[in-house]
Structures are given as C-alpha cells and as structure tokens.
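STRUCTURE:
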C-alpha cells in the first residue's frame, strides 16, 4: 500500500509509535540525511532512555526544538496492512495503540551466533566390551541416520552416558543437526481424500472463494465428525496452488497433535506452528519465513493474527465459537472478529468453522452477511450419538457418589463390549470447596474472592484464578478440630476415585490441564486414548473438543446443569456448545455412540433442545431472548472494570466515573456494582456495564466518556472490555 518514502526535507518531523502502553505517537525531528518511510523501525529517545518505535505518520509541524530520531534499525519495516490492523484493533478495543503495536512488532534480531544442536551417527565398529545398553543404542542407530542424542537415548532406553561412551569408543560420531525445516513446501495434491457429495459442494464453494481472491466470510457449520477439516483443507490447497499463504487459527494450539498429523498426511509436510511455546531462534526464523512468503501455511494461536504475512490468501478460524479466542489480559480482543478485520484489510476470504457456532456468527450468516455452508451429516454414514437424560431427582447416587445407576449400567455394558467411555465433568481438582464440619470454616484464597480447590495429586489447595497454592492442613486452622475437614462436591480427581472403586478392573485416566508432566505427556496420553489404551476417560473440557477417539461409544455428563445456573447471559449458549461438543465425542468410529446427561432439571430448555437433536430450536430460542434483552448481536456491550488495591479506592473511582456518564437515547449504564470476582489477585474490582443499541457508536461513546472522567489516581486502573464474553 503506502510504500512511498516520505519526502522529508531537513527539519521535517515524523510521529513515532512506541510499543508501550501509550495511546499516542510522539513527534520527532528527522535528522539531515535520513530518509524514512511509514512503518520504518527506528530508535528514538524517550525520557532518559533510547527506545524502539515505528514511524506511524508524517509529523504535522517543523522540527523546532523536538528531539531527533536517533536512527533507523536494520529491520524490515512494519507492513502497511499490519499498521492498519493495529489502528483498527486499538480503535475497536480502546486499548492503548502502543500495546497493540507490541503484539505486531518483531523484536530486533538476536545476533549472538546460534549454537547448533548436536546429533550422533553410527560410523564405526562396536567396542570390544559390549553391554545390553550399548547393544540397544547401536541397534537403535542402525542405518547410519543422524539422530539427536536425546532421541536416541529415549528410543533405546539408555542414559546419555551410554551414548557418550560409544562416542569415546569411536562407534558414534558427533555431528551438528540440521535446523528444523520451518518452511517446507506443502503439496496441494499430496493425498487428496475422496469427498462425499455434501463435502464436495462445500469444498467447491470454499475453493471458489479463494480463487475469487477477495474478502468474504463463510461459515462452515458441520456436526462433529462431518469432515470440516477435510473440507477446508481443499481451500488451503487452492491457496497453495495460487502461491498465497494461509493462516489457520486454532483455539488450543498446544494440543493439536492430531491436527498436525492430518495436515501432514494431506500435504506431505507440517504447517508452520505459531504459539507462545515457540521461542528464540525458531520464532525468529518462522517470522522471517512468513514475511518472505516462504511459509505457506501457518497454524497458530490467536497471536498469529499479528504476523507479517507477505501474501495472505486465506484465513481459517477453526472452532470459531471457542472462548479461548478472547484475550482477556492486556489488549482485550476477540481473535475471530479480528481475523475478519484482517481478512478485509488483506482482501482475503475468511472461513469460520464450528459444530456449534456462536450466536453472533449464526446471525451474521442468517442475515446474509456471511455465506452459510452446512454439513449436516457425519462422514461415512456414521450416526450422531443418541442422547438421553438421567433425572438425578429420581436416580440419586448415594452421598459422596456422583454416578447414577443408569450411568453405571451403561458403563458396565461398555466395559463388557470392550468399548471406551468418557465421563465429563468440567471441574479440575478433587473438590471445589473444603470446609470444616465442626465450625464451618471454608478455605478461601487470600488474594481473590474464590474458594480454594482441593488438588489431591498435588496435595494442595489451589486458587484457579491467581494460582495461589497452600498445603492442605490436617486440622481446621480456625477451630483446630482434628479430622474435621470435608471435601464438598466433586472434581475430576474425586470422580476418578469413584470410578476406581466401582470399576476396579477398568483402565482409567484423568485428563485435565493439571495433568502431571505437562503438555507433551498430555499429547501422548490423548494419542493413547485414541488408540484404545484406556477404558474410562475422566475429563474436563480439555477432552471435549476436537479430538477423535474412534473407540469411544459412551459419553456420560456428570453435571449437565453446571454453568446453566450462573447469571451470565451467555451461560445457555456456552453450556449448549460444550454439551454438544462433548457428546459429539461418542460414536465417531465404526460403532454408534450414545450419551447420558445427568441433570436435576430435565425440563430446562437448553437440555430439551439438545436432546431434540435440532440445534435450530436452541438458536431460535436464544436469538429471541437476546433480542428481547438488547444483548449482542442485537445491541452493543462493554464492561469497565475499575480495580484498586483497596475497596474504597475502587468504589469511589467507579462512582466518579458513573457520575460523569451521559445517557443519551439508546445508551444504558448499569452499576457500579462489585465485579463477579470482587477481589482478584489482591485487587478490589468494581464494574460498570454499558449497553447500547446498534446504531450507537460504542467506541466513540466510551472514548468521550473516559476523556471527561477524572483520571485514575494512585493504584486505580480502569480496563475496558468491549464485547465481554462473560458478565
Ligand atoms: P469435524 O472436524 O467436522 O469434526 P473431521 O474433519 O475431524 O470432522 O472428520 C472426522 C473424521 O472423518 C476424521 O477422522 C476424518 O479423517 C474422517 N473423514 C472425514 N471426511 C473424510 C473423507 N472424505 N475421506 C476420508 N475420511 C474422512
Ligand atoms: Zn486467588
């Protein structure tokens, strides 16, 4: 777009945006002899220091007594499309523009030389003295391939010392490993699947949108197991043929081992992977490959939106309804919405996929703003699971137990048939609350208004909001009664105990984000589940989505009411989505599946809609209730969180803010009231909610208000959350 150098006579000025929490670009004088253009990365003085910034616009006046730009850094300039995106995100979210820039700005290259990783290769004869360990190591290195030392040690189950001794003996030679291939070229025709009729016509529409090479949004709505991935891969293949790049956004990139395997099976190579665990040199190299256009496909977490693509030809937002797309800290943006913005800026098509689209997306599709493609059937004639409710008022497990007789029987049948069962409970840890039976003392987080969750694996009480950890004591800290502490309610760990006593012969596993051993182990266990190594899986929402477990034929939902009782207007939508996702884990393989949902409220509209198997019923009811309440997408919504180190400070600022709110027609200001987590990480939080009709420009309204309002003093902070996901 604007690649023209700015013609700058001596004494001209530029406005430089600095990637810190500042909203405005600062003006600097351009020294003689320096030619700058928009997007150039420059060094400028800021207070007593030097800092890096980006030339954002031509300055208004003459240099006068402004400070001067120190110099231009030897870095690629920020792309005009990215500059536009930064401007847009900052405008929409009200985040300081500098904070948004920080998401997009590449760090200056690290110029310490990269140390090569070392590998070993079998080059010589075995040593005279052989041991079983040495034999295994040599056998594993057979064929003379260069292999990383750690990988060889693992493959042969030997220690690194065994390998070192074979290096000393001359059997192995040490050589540098080649760098990981970051931008191997995917082959669009590597292994094309045969698509069903429905899949083919959806794929054809997506391919046409890539060929048209213009902006447009398509919702690809398909039931779980309908083959959405196979279908949008065709659009990716077309972008590769057109020599343009694709971005595939995923909600939880760390757990996408299955996705990567499928991508590799389809295109012959792995995609470029972008997420927070990709660091250092690898990150830099991937960024460079994206900027040069060499990396054709990037699969990434939401931050991949801010990468410098050279020729972006397609954006896919996988599982577009996922809450993980909303960034809550710092710049609070929704990656799905910003993906649509980036698509418009780049003039590229955007595909949103989901089995349970968000209401916003659904309505955009119904109103014709998005193209709506549907895959109503599972691939290969597989049936959706049959769903049933268990009325817990009648079939009540005894005290301290959570699995009803009906569900126990169903699990038993599955065990006998050697089929897998999934028990879903969206609660990490052992018990959500611990209390003293004698005095009623409850364990609360010292930093948050939240109960501490009992984690038996870790032998600790943990706050799920701030991470505070303390040992679980043996006696009550308040009344010192021994043996009086009681766990209240179930978490997945406690459910696992019940499974172990009721089905002692079953191989069971608990899968949640607390899994000991971290993401790598978790990935392996997910694979093991897919391969049928466990009979009963007990899991949180971590196992609800995306995974394909072919042997899973029963899903038991322990508490279908969890989430429905909160006052949050999105509670119904979220519960509907998670229950549809998790029950969709059943029956994806050869055998049909079924799901049983335990509830105290079998008449609840969300559960009735779910059981009816007709999502339209849910969407129609939910659309009507949002419309009646003027909630998004029928109205606009923002939350203002006012926090401070003390309650009076946050409350008085919240009141001051509320006092200077103007309420013209179409604007409603609610509060101030305590925020849902009234204390979080030691900060006292109040909240104001702004609701407007659609014809009000919410951003302009908020800006004008905050400008009028007294500036926060002392420890007070005001955070704006446009389109809050929960309130
Ligand atoms: P979704 O994302 O809609 O839940 P997937 O794309 O994961 O569905 O597909 C479900 C399963 O069906 C996967 O194992 C996939 O490989 C398989 N599948 C879907 N379509 C085809 C096809 N046309 N040919 C072969 N296998 C397919
Ligand atoms: Zn806490």
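SEQUENCE:
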């Amino acid at each position: 777009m604007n690649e023209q150098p700015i013609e700058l006579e001596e004494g001209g000025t530029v406005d430089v945006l600095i990637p810190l929490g500042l909203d405005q670009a600062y003006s600097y004088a351009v020294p003689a002899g320096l030619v700058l253009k928009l997007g150039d990365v420059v060094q400028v003085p800021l207070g007593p220091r030097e800092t890096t910034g980006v030339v954002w616009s031509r300055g208004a006046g003459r240099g006068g007594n402004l400070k001067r730009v120190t110099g231009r850094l030897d870095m690629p300039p920020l792309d005009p499309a990215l500059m536009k995106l930064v401007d847009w995100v900052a405008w929409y979210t009200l985040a300081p523009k500098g904070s948004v820039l920080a998401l997009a700005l590449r760090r200056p290259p690290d110029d310490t030389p990269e140390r090569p990783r070392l590998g070993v290769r079998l080059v010589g004869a075995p040593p005279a003295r052989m041991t079983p360990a040495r034999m295994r190591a040599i056998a594993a290195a057979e064929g003379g391939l260069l292999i990383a030392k750690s990988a060889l040690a693992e493959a042969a189950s030997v220690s690194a010392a065994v390998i070192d001794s074979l290096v000393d003996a001359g059997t192995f030679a040490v050589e540098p490993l080649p760098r990981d291939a970051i931008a191997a070229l995917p082959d669009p025709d590597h292994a094309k699947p045969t698509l069903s009729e429905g899949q083919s016509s959806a794929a054809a529409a997506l391919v046409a949108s890539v060929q048209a090479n213009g902006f447009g949004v398509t919702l690809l709505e398909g039931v779980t197991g309908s083959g959405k991935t196979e279908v949008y891969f065709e659009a990716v293949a077309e972008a590769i043929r057109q020599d343009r790049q694709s971005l595939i956004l995923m909600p939880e990139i760390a757990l996408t081992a299955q996705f990567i395997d499928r991508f590799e099976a389809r295109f012959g190579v792995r995609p470029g992977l972008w997420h927070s665990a990709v660091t250092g040199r690898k990150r830099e190299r991937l960024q460079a490959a994206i900027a040069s256009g060499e990396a054709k496909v990037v699969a990434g977490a939401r931050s991949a939106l801010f990468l410098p693509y050279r020729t972006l030809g397609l954006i896919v937002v996988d599982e577009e309804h996922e809450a993980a797309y909303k960034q809550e800290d710092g710049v609070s943006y929704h990656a799905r919405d910003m993906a649509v913005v980036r698509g418009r800026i780049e003039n590229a098509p955007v595909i949103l996929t989901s089995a349970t689209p968000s209401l916003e997306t659904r309505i955009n599709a119904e109103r014709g703003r998005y193209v709506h493609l549907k895959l109503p059937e599972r691939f290969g004639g597989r049936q959706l699971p049959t769903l049933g409710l268990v009325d817990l008022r009648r079939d009540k497990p005894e005290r301290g137990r959570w699995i009803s007789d009906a569900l126990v029987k169903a699990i038993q049948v599955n065990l006998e048939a050697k089929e897998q069962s999934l028990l879903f409970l969206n609660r990490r840890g052992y018990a959500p609350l611990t209390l003293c039976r004698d005095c009623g003392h409850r364990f609360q987080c010292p930093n948050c208004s939240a109960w501490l969750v009992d984690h038996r694996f870790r032998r600790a009480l943990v706050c799920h909001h701030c991470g505070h950890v303390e040992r679980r004591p043996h006696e009550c800290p308040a009344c010192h009664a021994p043996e009086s502490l009681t766990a209240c309610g179930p978490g997945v760990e406690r459910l696992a105990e019940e499974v172990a006593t009721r089905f002692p012969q079953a191989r069971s596993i608990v899968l949640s984000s607390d899994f000991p051993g971290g993401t790598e182990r978790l990935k392996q266990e997910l694979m093991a589940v897919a391969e049928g190594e466990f009979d009963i899986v007990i899991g949180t929402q971590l196992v609800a989505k995306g995974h394909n477990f072919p042997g899973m034929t029963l899903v038991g939902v322990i508490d279908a009411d969890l989430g429905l009782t909160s006052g949050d207007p999105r509670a119904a939508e979220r519960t509907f989505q998670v229950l549809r996702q998790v029950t969709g884990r059943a029956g994806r393989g050869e055998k049909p599946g079924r799901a049983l949902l335990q509830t105290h409220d079998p008449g609840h509209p969300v559960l009735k809609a779910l059981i009816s198997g007709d999502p339209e019923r849910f969407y129609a009811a939910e659309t009507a209730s949002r419309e009646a309440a003027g909630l998004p997408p029928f109205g606009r919504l923002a939350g203002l969180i006012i926090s401070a180190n003390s309650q009076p400070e946050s409350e008085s600022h919240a009141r001051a803010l509320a006092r200077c709110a103007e309420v013209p027609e179409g604007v409603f200001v609610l509060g101030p009231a305590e925020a849902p987590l009234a204390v979080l990480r030691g900060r006292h939080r109040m909240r104001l909610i702004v609701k407007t009709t659609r014809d009000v420009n919410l951003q302009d309204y908020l800006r004008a208000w905050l400008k009028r309002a007294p500036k926060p003093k002392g420890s007070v902070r005001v955070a704006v959350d446009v389109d809050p996901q929960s309130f």
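REMARK: The pocket of adenosine-5'-diphosphate (ligand 1) is lined by residues 193-196, 199, 222, 224-230, 379, 548 (CB under 6 Å).
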